[in-house]
Design a protein that fits this description.
The chain is of the alpha/beta class and about 160 residues long. Helices cover about 45% and strands about 15% of the residues.
Length: about 160
């Protein structure tokens, strides 16, 4: 019988040197984006390499376990990625899993406070569009996608 989500989280919290969430819980959520063409970034160096680019556009999805918001953030980002105009690069970091990568990505998202999930669009190395958790929570994947498509039309 599989462990419940709560028991997985509780058992993992006993090991302070591990990720906030167990891999058994987060792997399918991470694959939801990486199997769709998003590049998963696990290190701060990888994030800097992508976001320090001074030409082109990059979409960054801060993935999250939070079912109330992330459940629609991932499908919304994937729907938006089907648009005629789309970013040159699509990447993702996983909050609570890719800790260094997420912290580094959030540095580029200042002045916005940390938000999981969140979706950021960068153009020529500058943040040009940002969806915080409160913009995602309670919205359908289609509404999130439409918001992103408008940003793609403007910046990509």
């Amino acid at each position: 019988m599989p462990l419940s989500v709560l028991s997985l989280i509780n058992s993992n919290q006993k090991n302070k040197n591990s990720n906030m969430y167990p891999a058994e819980l987060t792997a399918p959520m991470a694959k939801d984006l990486t199997e769709y063409g998003f590049n998963g970034l696990q290190t701060a160096e990888a994030v800097s390499e992508v976001l320090d680019q001074k030409e082109g556009t990059t979409l960054v999805v801060v993935n999250s376990v939070c079912g109330c918001a992330a459940a629609n953030a991932r499908p919304g980002a994937k729907l938006a990625a089907q648009h005629d105009k789309k970013p040159d690069h699509m990447v993702t970091v996983f909050a609570g899993v890719d800790k260094e990568a997420t912290a580094k990505a959030r540095e580029y998202m200042a002045p916005y406070p940390p938000s999981s999930p969140s979706i950021a669009l960068f153009k020529d190395g500058k943040l040009v569009h940002f969806l915080e958790r409160h913009h995602i929570e309670g919205r359908s994947a289609e509404i999130i996608a439409e918001n992103l498509k408008l940003a793609f039309d403007r910046y990509c």
